[in-house]
Amino acid sequence: MVKFRKLHFSRLPNAAHYYYCRMVNNALSGASQALVAALGTLIALFGAAVAEEKKWMEWVKQTVLTKQIQEADRRMDRALTALRMQVRTLKYSATQGMAEVADRVYAMLQTYGKVTRKPYEEQEGDVLTILEQLQSGGAYYNDASVLGITALVSELQNAFTLFRQLLKQRDEKELLKPETPFPEVRRNIEKIYYQIVDIIDAGARLNASPDYAAFINGLNPEIERLNGEFDPVRHDISDSEPAPIPPQQYTGRPLTPAPDVLYQTPHDGTVHLELGKDYNLAYRNNTEVGNAECIIRGKGKFRGSKTVTFIIVRAI
Fold this sequence. Notes:
This protein is elongated. The protein has ten helices and nine strands. A hairpin with a 3-residue loop joins strand 4 and strand 5. Helix 4 (64-93) runs antiparallel to helix 5 and helix 6 runs antiparallel to helix 8. The protein is of the alpha/beta class.
C-alpha cells in the first residue's frame, strides 16, 4: 500500500513552499472523479488558500528589502563575471608565466559552473568557497596578487557580504512582522493540505484504488526532494573520514589533491561523499615545501568543516 510522505512544511523557504502548494493544486484540478467526490469542498478551499499565498508572495517581491536583495545579487553577479573575464583575458594576453597562473585560477573558477544562475542558497556556498581560495591564506591568494585581481576579489567580497546581510534582514523583519499575514496564510494552507492527505491515505487503505495510488506516487518524489534539500537536520562534516593525502612533490604551483571522503551512516553504512554536492575543498599553504592544509567544507546536507594536512616535499 502506498502512503504519502510527510512534507516538512515548516522547513521550506517561501519559494519552495509556494512551488509545492501550486503543484498540489494543479494535481487536484486534474483529479479523478473518485478523488473529487471524496475530497468534496477541500479542493476549492485549497485552491483559494494557494491563491492567497500567491498574493502575499507578490507583496514580498515588491518590498524594499526584496528589491535591495535583487540589486545586491546583480552586483555580486557582475563582480564574479568581471573577475572571471579578467582572469580569462590574462590567459591569452599575458606573458607565458602569468598566463600559466591565470590558467590555474580560471580552472578553479570553472569548477563551480554557472554560479550566477544557481539558486540563492547554492550561490552563497560557492561564492564563499571561491573567496576563501582567493583571499589571504587561500590556495590561490598569491596567484590573485600576481594577476592583479585583488581589487576585483574585494568587490566580490563586499557584494557577497551585503547580499547575505540583506537576506537575513528580510527573513527577520519582513516575513516575521506581526502585521504580515504569512503565518496565518501558511497555517490555513497546511491545515487543508493535511486534511486532504488524511482522506487520500484513508481511501488508499480502504479500497486500494489505483486513483489514490497514482495521485500519491505523483507527489512523493517531489516531497522527498524538497525534504532532502531543505532539511535543517544536517550532518557534521567533521565526523567524516577523509583518506590520508600522500606526500606531494613540489612543483612551484598550488597543489590541490582531493582526498576521498567517507561518512558512516546508521542505515547505509559507509558511503562515499560527493565533491561539489556534499562538500567543497579549499587549501592553505599549498605551494611551498612544508605542511599544507586541505579544508573540507560541508555543503548540502553537511555542515561544518574538517582539515586534512599533507606534506609538500622536494624531489630527491
